[in-house]
DNA sequence: TTGTAAGCGTTATCAA
DNA sequence: TTGATAACGCTTACAA
């Protein structure tokens, strides 16, 4: 493998001069530049980027932590991140955690060891304290509604979004409203639960724990939801569903089971995915790709900021 | 940032000794080991991994090239790769290409510059010759039915799978069969097209170019497909659809448009995704995650191999 | 405009 | 069992 020293020897110049032409720095005579360029051609030379990293102290590598990539929410986020990363000459290192904290710690370790310059955590499993301990080694940005002085965030205000969706259903005459979420322990799920409880209090409605269904992550969980609904003595008349994929599943299952939508059951999805349009599902539009871009920019930027993204209800046929 | 030299000074030993305890090499007295360990604790020391990379010449980083992660096919592949990468202490660097050759070349460049040890190309846009030029810098594996001495591959035999699906439809009485694919230029699309043409010849059927619909990548393309179908004077009675997501979209559209399935239009999807089960769509099961694992193992392994994966038809209600 | 030489933080070789 | 010291391949003061 030829290196910069070899080039220098071949071109009859110093390594500095070679480095200068390699990095397009000024102060190199055309003659020497040509000589170096020729040597590069002749040897099919290319940098060893690890030496560059060691020397410069950065890698232009950005870590992205997410539970899984197949999930439409994370896929959109990732797409946004990938697009802007490309523009900024960053590459992405993927940490697929399946919500395991240990995987997240792997990512944090890579930050510590300087293999990645910064880290976007799309869904956090470890403690904030752990994050803060690592802030020292590179920037870390989060995708959740948390305001710490040292950590930039881009987030949806799940509390108010959820509350507004509930109000909308209430105005449409629904008083028995259930919802399903991915994992109850997630920070957005907690906000939603709070909104839900506050909503019940506001309208003096009865709290039924069975109306909250968790572990709804994939399309196939829709069957589980409908099955549960059918066991309830007093089933809800409306459902806020984790995301549009699952909402589509729910609509399909209702079809199969002869449950009329929206008359017997109203559905609101989240994300405004194409499938929701196709199946005429009322949903809440969330600009995930744009969120991804913003996360990236926060990660490479200097200042700390907290960006709340705007969402909007798309009224369609399932309410 | 404290380094190995600092530790050596603090512990009163040489850098070599420090390196030895860091890497759990033998020949270091318990006394000195302890001293070093203490220094590590005291300073909250951690390696600069880039120096390690430079010194060792590898990075434990595997590149993964794919057009987009949101697509269920690639998401499954990625999931398989991610799972096994974890076991092998590899991290993944993602190259989301959107089928742009330039992005693929980025990945190849990183291989050249030694930032990644090897590369899995899930969907190739550049020429085989280009790939072969880079083989020298690290292993590259492909996910397509191509047999070169120097390149390992894991693939589905799209020709025979497609042919068998066509035969199945023929046996069910269909003679006017159309199909849709992602991008016509892809290597698997070419195999499918060949199978399609051979099938027509075998049964002496008329070739209608409009029965081949390309650029079907997302759910929303289903609408386009149905729209096209409705403009045809002699529409097909059966459709082989790119993947189950789109098949689900097609089924939904048919529902909306009052087209009876399977009586007016039979559908076969690909991939055996959960949505296919839920919507009772006949499909072809392809073990993507397993393919991902195999690709990874080929990438880290020494020998070249060519693995054909087995698929199977899942008979359900859309044929 | 050019080059020498000192880093960057490890690992590996070899002699003791 | 230990430690100098030379790689690894690049960037960057600094001097000329």
From TrEMBL, chains A, B:
Keyword tags: DNA-binding, Transcription, Transcription regulation
UniProt xrefs under InterPro entries: HTH_LacI (IPR000843), Lambda_DNA-bd_dom_sf (IPR010982), Peripla_BP/Lac1_sug-bd_dom (IPR001761), Peripla_BP_I (IPR028082)
A GO molecular-function descriptor: DNA-binding transcription factor activity
Pfam families: LacI, Peripla_BP_1
Residue stretches making up the HTH lacI-type domain: 2-56
Protein name per the record: LacI family DNA-binding transcriptional regulator
The keyword Transcription is annotated on this UniProt entry: yes
